């Protein structure tokens, strides 16, 4: 897709082919008045976004052979008009179908994660989770049994888990087209979430921890969402919350999962530091 030396975060031709039709259609709807096609291809713009997501660098510190800081315009535009979610949903449905499942799930798992905010993030968009002593934001995910993201919500860390859970349930009801009938949550959620789920036709079950178990013990079915968090954290832009607006943070999750799903659909893996090909690069 590019004549330059590739980065490990780049889309291969096979991965790019999965999302190219969506962005080509977007480009055709947003033609320049002057007819100028732009200096950089849509594929290279996506590579800039993925490079930053994977490495955690600032826009201004992108390598010189990638589209510069102006790539942020596309990141913001695709976030605002829902293109990032459209691409994510397209690949999510394909991964589920490949796993011989219906496009939309019937069961989801909800979890809330408190994430520290980086220096420079506006205080008005953050808060403090007193229980976990974390100042930043709460990142809520709803995932299916394959660990695929169905809904994302990002709120100030001071917001109670119930409010985040209710927001997630509302998003799930829309994103999954009414197919979800069961949601599993941990003990941090209270009856408000259960009641709200019932109003949406979703049976919310609170998974209780066995008091006899000591230390960390994975809970049946709920471990899928923890696995997803483990995958997302490999994208350094998600280790902390660097974004000025919560909507930016949610978009980062969609792009990270788009990268993961494109890799799954093409049966390719990203090289790690353990691979001798990386060591010899």
Structure description:
The chain has 281 residues and is α/β, with parallel strands linked by helices. It has a domain at 103-243: 2-Layer Sandwich (Nucleotidyltransferase, domain 5), CATH 3.30.420. The protein has helices at 13-29, 42-55, 71-80, 83-98, 161-175, 191-199, 223-232, 246-265, 276-279, and strands spanning 107-116, 127-129, 134-143, 149-156, 182-185, 203-206. Strands 1, 2, 3, 4, 5 and 6 form a six-stranded mixed beta sheet that branches. β3 (134-143) and β4 (149-156) form a beta hairpin.
- Unreliable stretches: none
Distance, first to last CA: 20 Å
The topology string of helices and strands comes to HHHHEEEEHEHEHHH
Number of helices: 9
* Strand percent estimate: 5-15%
CATH topology type of the domain at 103-243? Nucleotidyltransferase, domain 5
Return the structural class: alpha/beta
Helix content: 40-55%
Mean pLDDT over the full residue set? 88
CATH class of the domain at 103-243: Alpha Beta
Count of extended strands: 6
Please outline the major beta sheet.
6 strands, mixed
Q: Please give the CATH architecture of the domain at 103-243.
A: 2-Layer Sandwich
Rounded radius of gyration (Å): 20 Å
Net shape = globular
Which SSEs are present, and which pair or pack?
Layout: H1 13-29, H2 42-55, H3 71-80, H4 83-98, E1 107-116, E2 127-129, E3 134-143, E4 149-156, H5 161-175, E5 182-185, H6 191-199, E6 203-206, H7 223-232, H8 246-265, H9 276-279
Parallel strand pairs: 1-5, 5-6
Antiparallel strand pairs: 1-3, 2-3, 3-4
Helix pairs in contact: 1-4, 2-3, 2-8, 4-8, 5-6
Name the descriptors.
alpha/beta; 6 strands; 281 residues
């Amino acid at each position: 897709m590019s004549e330059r030396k590739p980065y490990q975060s780049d889309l291969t031709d096979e991965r790019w082919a999965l999302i190219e039709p969506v962005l080509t259609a977007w480009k055709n709807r947003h033609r320049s008045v002057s007819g100028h096609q732009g200096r950089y291809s849509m594929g290279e713009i996506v590579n800039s976004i993925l490079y930053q997501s994977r490495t955690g660098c600032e826009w201004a510190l992108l390598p010189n052979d990638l589209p510069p800081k102006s790539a942020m315009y596309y990141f913001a535009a695709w976030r605002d008009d829902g293109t990032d979610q459209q691409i994510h949903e397209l690949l999510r449905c394909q991964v589920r179908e490949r796993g011989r499942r219906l496009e939309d799930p019937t069961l989801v798992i909800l979890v809330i994660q408190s994430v520290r905010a980086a220096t420079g993030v506006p205080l008005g968009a953050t808060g403090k989770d007193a229980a976990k002593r974390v100042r930043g934001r709460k990142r809520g995910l709803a995932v299916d049994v394959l660990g695929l993201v169905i809904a994302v919500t990002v709120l100030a860390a001071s917001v109670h888990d119930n409010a985040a859970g209710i927001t997630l349930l509302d998003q799930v009801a829309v994103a999954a087209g009414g197919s979800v009938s069961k949601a599993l949550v941990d003990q941090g959620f209270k009856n408000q979430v259960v009641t709200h789920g019932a109003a949406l036709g979703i049976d919310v079950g609170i998974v209780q921890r066995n008091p006899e178990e000591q230390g960390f013990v994975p809970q049946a079915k709920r471990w899928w969402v923890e696995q997803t968090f483990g995958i997302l954290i490999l994208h350094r832009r998600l280790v902390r919350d660097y974004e000025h607006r919560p909507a930016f943070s949610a978009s980062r999750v969609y792009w990270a999962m788009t990268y993961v799903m494109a890799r799954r659909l093409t049966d390719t893996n990203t090289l790690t530091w353990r691979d001798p090909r990386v060591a010899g690069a």
